[in-house]
Write a structure and sequence with these properties.
Length: 344
């Protein structure tokens, strides 16, 4: 089976830039092996990994918010910079700027601390850091998750190159949604993912301490580009102890730049919002959206990723922008969580 033209072009571009890595002695035998193998090759922040300096410039673009004429766009856009010095799992410095938003988070001898101009992290910052910190989500291969048995494995062609594709689908008579992950058959690297309509492309891999780090990262929803990033990595070099020190008390568990997923936190009951959809629109609305539930319980920067019916999508987003519920918590601390929702 061959992939479509636009996907084939993207994957060929990735493969042409991919630097060689050590090749597995044998092909992974199960979906969990593909995910865990890619994670081993692409995850930088593990005990024993080499200290590094990561520098990222990125451009945050608008999403499809389905706004009325009187509504103002809420997705924070513009040029941004992310900088990270990592020495070991409990000694690091992260700093990010996007528009008026600026935040610094450190962990060192004084514990973890954070300073930010606001207690809300923009969705595009979350998308970027999620891809940088966890290139392959652990939920895809952990024994506790149980998804490994639901993946279909097949090979697809990108130009003259064969890729391994793992896909999972769910749907009904109204629509079908697919999650899919594409791996380089030789190196085992994860090149592209599509999770509920949120597409991540990595290209131009550079090798650092036998880990694969993309030079270019693109996040899309369909043909709409949400984020573009250029990444450089180098040894940490000479270290200034002041980089790991911030004034003030230790950060609350819920105050962090680390993108939190629903599985990481204690989630509030989201049923009210979704029961409203069936009551107002009847059976059959199908959509996929990305939204941030902030520390006060408001939905922020809601955008549609997939929507067979634009009219229904606009009604749904308008509803969520008006919602106010209890916030998610982690260790009893209110926290921000990114929510990727598909409804059929």
């Amino acid at each position: 089976m061959r992939v479509g033209r636009s996907l084939r072009f993207a994957l060929v571009s990735i493969l042409c830039l991919c630097s060689p890595l050590s090749v597995p002695s044998q092909e992974p035998k199960s979906p969990a092996d593909w995910f865990s193998g890619a994670s081993d090759k692409m995850t930088l922040r593990m005990p024993g990994c080499a200290p590094f300096h990561l520098h990222v410039t990125f451009k945050a673009n608008p999403g499809e918010e389905m706004l009325n004429r009187a509504d103002k766009a809420s997705v924070i856009t513009g040029d941004g910079v992310y900088d990270e010095i990592w020495l070991e799992p409990h000694k690091w410095h992260r700093e990010v700027t996007l528009g008026d938003y600026h935040a610094v988070e450190v962990e060192g001898d004084g514990g973890r601390k954070m300073q930010a101009g606001t207690d809300y992290e923009p969705s595009r910052v979350l998308m970027l850091l999620d891809s940088l910190l966890t290139p392959v989500p652990k939920s895809l291969f952990s024994k506790e998750n149980g998804r490994s048995g639901h993946w279909k494995a097949d090979t697809v062609k990108a130009g003259d190159t064969t890729l391994m594709r793992l896909s999972s689908s769910f749907g009904n008579q109204h629509a079908d949604f697919f999650d899919s992950y594409y791996f380089h058959l030789t190196t085992g690297l994860l090149l592209m993912s599509n999770s509920k309509g949120l597409i991540t492309l990595r290209s131009g891999f550079q090798v650092f301490d036998n880990k694969a780090v993309p030079k270019d990262l693109v996040i899309k929803a369909g043909e709409r580009t949400l984020l573009e990033a250029q990444i450089t990595i180098a040894p940490a070099g000479e270290v200034n102890p002041d980089w790991f020190v911030l004034e003030g008390p230790a950060a609350e568990p819920g105050m962090t730049l680390r993108p939190l997923q629903p599985s990481d936190v204690r989630m509030p009951d989201l049923g009210e919002g979704f029961s409203w959809i069936s009551q107002e629109l009847g059976p059959g609305p199908a959509f996929s959206m990305f939204v941030v539930l902030d520390r006060s319980g408001h939905y922020r920067e809601a955008e549609i990723l997939l929507a067979p019916s634009p009219r229904e999508a606009a009604i749904i987003l308008s509803h969520f922008r008006r919602q106010h519920i209890k916030p998610a918590t982690i260790d009893h601390s209110p926290c921000q969580v990114q929510v990727l929702v598909s409804v059929l």
